Amino acid sequence: MSCSGTNAYRHGTMKDWVISVTIVLADGSVIKTRRRPRKSSAGFDLTSLLVGSEGTLGLVTEAVLKVTSLPENQHVALAAFPTTRAAVRAATCLITSGLPIDALELLDPYSLGAVNHSGLSVRQWKEEPTLFLRFSGSRQAVQDQIRKTQQAANVNGCEKFEVSGEKEEIDQIWGARKQVAPSLQAMKKDPSDLFLHADAAVPISSLAEMIDWTHQVINEAGFTGSTLGHVGDGKVDPQI
Known about the structure:
Layout: H1 8-11, E1 18-24, E2 30-32, H2 46-52, E3 59-65, E4 75-80, H3 84-97, E5 103-107, H4 109-118, E6 130-135, H5 139-155, E7 160-164, H6 167-178, H7 180-185, E8 200-201, H8 207-220, E9 226-230, E10 235-239
Antiparallel strand pairs: 1-2, 1-3, 4-6, 4-7, 5-6, 5-9, 8-10, 9-10
Helix pairs in contact: 3-5, 3-8
């Protein structure tokens, strides 16, 4: 229940959206947390304790979650770079700028190569380290975010910057991000081949080095794989 995702950069992870839980403990007793007003200083924060335990303290049978409105005036963008380090530098600039970007994702050349090879996307993507970004808000706010994002990208050697607010193009661009895992699975040479997925989190200053090292290890082992991730949330996902 502490999972991350593409929305985590701006909206937080799953744990930030849980109001209360009903949980069954090992002895069979049932606990429901937070039977009190939204704001209270009384007692321990059992909800956070139980959610953070990720099932080790008991079995969650019910969860009450927050809801929010759908984003308005949604736009997406992609920024392609010659190297992973350049892409990470641009991402670092955006993170430290405090721009309220909805999502900030990084796909490596192997990820985009897998999408191209699979045919799951209607487009062919340039196989370079690429940032995928999502924006929402008022018209003026979104335009300001896009302008500052493009400036940060250009300063760090961006070779291509594309942005769109059209639904069809949004689905194509953001769809490429979502199609990486099924694209890699489609590259199996034998039905018995395994698909392995891992999570890695390091300081963003070490992110480019870790991604390059992961590529080296995968290639030396003779495997097929890629590295992509929620770079805005400080996490990447090696997939083999």
